[in-house]
C-alpha cells in the first residue's frame, strides 16, 4: 500500500514550472530519501504533499484523501494532520519548555486533557532520548536536541509519517548523527518518512528508496544501491560527484 502517491503533479510560480509532471509512489512504512540539486523543487514537493501549497495540475493521494488543484480547506487540513513536517530551523516556541512545546498541539488542536498530553509528551521526549531535558527551554538545548524536540512535537499529533526538509543541514556533524539515528529508529516504528537530505551516508544506510529531483522532475528512483551506487542518468552522476566531493 502506498502512503502517498503523486499523479502527474505540476506546480508553477508565475511562468516558471517548479514541479513538472511528477509521478511518484511512496510505500507506507518506508523511508524515501529525496535528493537533488538546490532549486530542484524538493521543498515545494513536500509542501504540496502536506497541503501547505496548492499545485496547478495532477493529484496527490495521501491515505484516503485526494489533493487536487482546487482542494477544499477541510481536505488540506486533514492531510496536514497525517504528516508532520520538520524544518531545518526547528521552529520551536522559544518561550515554552521542551515538554510544553510537545504538548502544545495536542492541547490546542486535539483538545487533549492536560494530564494526558503531558504524559504522552514525556513518553515522546524519552523516545527521542530527551527525558532529562523536558524542562529545558530551546535556548538551553543544542541544535541536535532542538531538532529531536521538533521530531517529538511532530509525533505528538500521531501522524502516519514525517516530512523532513533538510533537518540536519544546520547541525554540526556529530549532532547530525543523533538526529539521523532518531529518524532511523522511527522507521522501525512503522512511520513513513520522506526525507530531503544531502547526507548520502544516511540515504544509503536508512532509505528504502531514493528519488532524485532535478529541475522539477524525478529523474531517477529506486533502491539506494541502484541510484547511489549505479546511477543511470548523467544528471544524477553529476549531482553525486558534487555532493560527495
Ligand atoms: N513562493 C515561491 N515563489 C516563487 N518561486 C518559488 C517559491 N518557492 C520556491 N520557488 C522557486 O521554486 C524553485 C524550487 O524551489 P525549492 O522547492 O525550494 O527547491 P529545493 O528545495 O529543491 O532547493 C526555486 O527556483 C525557487 O526559487
Ligand atoms: Mg529546499
Could you give a short account of the major beta sheet?
6 strands, mixed
Number of helices: 9
Ligands in the model, by name, code or SMILES, are:
adenosine-5'-diphosphate, magnesium ion
CATH names the topology of the domain at 2-87 and 161-244 as Rossmann fold
Question: In one word, what is the shape?
Answer: globular
CATH superfamily of the domain at 2-87 and 161-244: P-loop containing nucleotide triphosphate hydrolases
CA distance, first residue to last residue = 37 Å
Helix content: 25-40%
Multimeric state? single chain
Sheet with the most strands: spatial strand order: 6-7-8-3-9-10
CATH architecture group name of the domain at 2-87 and 161-244: 3-Layer(aba) Sandwich
Our Rg estimate from Cα atoms comes to 18 Å
Number of strands: 10
Question: Average pLDDT value?
Answer: 95
* Strand and helix order: EEEHEEHEHHHEHEHEEHH
User: Uncertain regions: pLDDT < 50 for 5+ in a row?
Assistant: none
How does the SSE layout of this entry go?
Blueprint: E1 2-13, E2 16-27, E3 31-35, H1 42-49, E4 57-62, E5 65-67, H2 73-82, E6 83-86, H3 98-108, H4 114-127, H5 143-155, E7 161-165, H6 173-188, E8 192-196, H7 200-206, E9 209-214, E10 217-222, H8 224-229, H9 234-244
Parallel strand pairs: 3-8, 3-9, 6-7, 7-8
Antiparallel strand pairs: 1-2, 1-4, 4-5, 9-10
The protein binds adenosine-5'-diphosphate (ADP) and magnesium ion.
Magnesium ion binds at residues 42-43, 165.
Amino acid at each position: 500500500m502506498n502512503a502517498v502517491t503523486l499523479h502527474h503533479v505540476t506546480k508553477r510560480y508565475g511562468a516558471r514550472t517548479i514541479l513538472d509532471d511528477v509521478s511518484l509512489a511512496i510505500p507506507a512504512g518506508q523511508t524515501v530519501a529525496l535528493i537533488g540539486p538546490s532549486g530542484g523543487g524538493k521543498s515545494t514537493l513536500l509542501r504540496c504533499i502536506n497541503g501547505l501549497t496548492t499545485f496547478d495540475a495532477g493529484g496527490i493521494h495521501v491515505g484516503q484523501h485526494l489533493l487536487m488543484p482546487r482542494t477544499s480547506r477541510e481536505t488540506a487540513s486533514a492531510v496536514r494532520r497525517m504528516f508532520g513536517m520538520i524544518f531545518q530551523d526547528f521552529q520551536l516556541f522559544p518561550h515554552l519548555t521542551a515538554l510544553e512545546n510537545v504538548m502544545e498541539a495536542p492541547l490546542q488542536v486535539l483538545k487533549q486533557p492536560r494530564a494526558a498530553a503531558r504524559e504522552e509528551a514525556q513518553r515522546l521526549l524519552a523516545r527521542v532520548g530527551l527525558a532529562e531535558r523536558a524542562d529545558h527551554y530551546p535556548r538551553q538545548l543544542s541544535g541536535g536536541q532542538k531538532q529531536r524536540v521538533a521530531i517529538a512535537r511532530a509525533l505528538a499529533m500521531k501522524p502516519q509519517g514525517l516530512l523532513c526538509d533538510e533537518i540536519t543541514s544546520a547541525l554540526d556533524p556529530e549532532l547530525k548523527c543523533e538526529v539521523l539515528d532518531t529518524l532511523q529508529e522511527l522507521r522501525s516504528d512503522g512511520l513513513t518518512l520522506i526525507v530531503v537530505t544531502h547526507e548520502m551516508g544516511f540515504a544509503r544506510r536508512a532509505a528504502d528508496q531514493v528519488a532524485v529531483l532535478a529541475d522539477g522532475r524525478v529523474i531517477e528512483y529506486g533502491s539506494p544501491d541502484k541510484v547511489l551506487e549505479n546511477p543511470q542518468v548523467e544528471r544524477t552522476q553529476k549531482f553525486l560527484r558534487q555532493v560527495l566531493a
